[in-house]
Amino acid sequence: MQMILGFFGEYCNHSNVCLREPCAPGAECVAKLAGRICICNGGDHPECYPENDPCAMSPCLNGGECGRSLTNPRGFICSCPKYYTGTFCEQRLSVCALAEEEGSSLMRETFTMTRRNAEQSEGTNNAMPETALCLNGGICVDHPKLFTYFCDCPKEWTGKRCEKRVIEVRL
């Protein structure tokens, strides 16, 4: 079977997008199933991708997805999953640090969740201050694996937020 210029495949049913849409001068056009890419050696044309695929080595961590970027000097950008940040999704967000940022929606959600849990376990509607995750000198500590926290309470306090006074009973 004779091939028609610009088409390929067993039945000449696939068109060569590189002939229809050539790349910038000096760039190599590589046809893909869903279009084409232009490989430019040192070129800075907006369509040019670096010669090597910057995502080939999977630079994004913690389940981040790598995508090519023509504007980022590294040639890629990581889209990070929930609770991760950083150039390579290498940093886990800190509940404690986020709670310190006043007005954070996460802070409000965390306080609402904490207040609901306290109300359910206590059976009361104590007004918990919304200025700190840990009360009465407690220190906020991020959970090592989950996106949550616990409070390291002074010895005279206990509870999720160090909100309950420890009562000593002498015998």
TrEMBL record:
Designated name of the protein: EGF-like domain-containing protein
InterPro entries referenced in this protein's UniProt entry, alphabetically: EGF, Notch_Cell-Fate_Det
Residue ranges constituting the EGF-like domain according to the UniProt record: 51-90, 125-163
Keywords: Disulfide bond, EGF-like domain, Glycoprotein, Repeat, Signal
Keyword Signal: yes
S-S bridge residues: 80-89, 134-151, 153-162
Membrane spanning residue stretches: none
CDD domains: EGF_CA (cd00054)
